[in-house]
Amino acid sequence: MIVKAWREQKRLTFPSFYLELVTIEACRGRKVGDLSKNVWATFAYIRDNIKTTVFIDPANTNNRISDDLTATEKQALANAASIARQATNWSQIVV
Description:
It is a single chain. By secondary structure, the chain is mainly α. The protein has one domain (2-90). It has four helices and two strands. Strand 1 (56-57) and strand 2 form a beta hairpin.
């Protein structure tokens, strides 16, 4: 997954399960297989929503996945996603 590679290369704190839930939400209703547009949508979703959206573990509704990150960590994700959205080619996002 490109977004996981981005997370690793930018050394961002973003647990995999949380990232997967965010990506699912970001791509809800989008065309399957349109990789570049879906990655772009995921970065936009992170930029615009990561600080405020509550994510609940679908297997355990008492587990608020979004509480796994601090406000500072969420801000860092939003900032990194904003920078990624400004890239003019993929090599500026992932190497």
